[in-house]
Write a structure and sequence with these properties.
This protein has 88 residues and is an all-alpha fold. The protein has four helices and no strands. The chain is globular, with a radius of gyration of 14 Å.
């Protein structure tokens, strides 16, 4: 789980307008932060298979958001991947 402060930081950095929480860019940024936090958790707790399944579902959801963004707006996709330091 992400803390409220980390979610607000993601909101400030990736939102399109003040009340934006549904744009693909915001969703990808939030999922990326959750994935990193869960990856750190799984390094300590390697037998936590329930969390591993949740991680895999988040990675799939992020991948689908990125595919949508790539099809709809290549420029935003490239800038987001570069900003989040994701492999494309």
């Amino acid at each position: 789980m992400l803390s409220k402060q980390k979610k607000q930081a993601a909101t400030r950095d990736y939102r399109r307008h003040e009340k934006d929480t549904g744009s693909a860019e915001y969703q990808v940024a939030l999922l990326t932060r959750q994935i990193k936090a869960l990856t750190d958790h799984l390094k300590k707790h390697s037998k936590d298979h329930h969390s591993r399944r949740g991680l895999l579902m988040m990675v799939g959801k992020r991948r689908r958001f990125l595919q949508f963004l790539q099809k709809s707006d290549e420029k935003k996709y490239n800038s987001l991947v570069k900003k989040l330091k994701l492999e494309a």
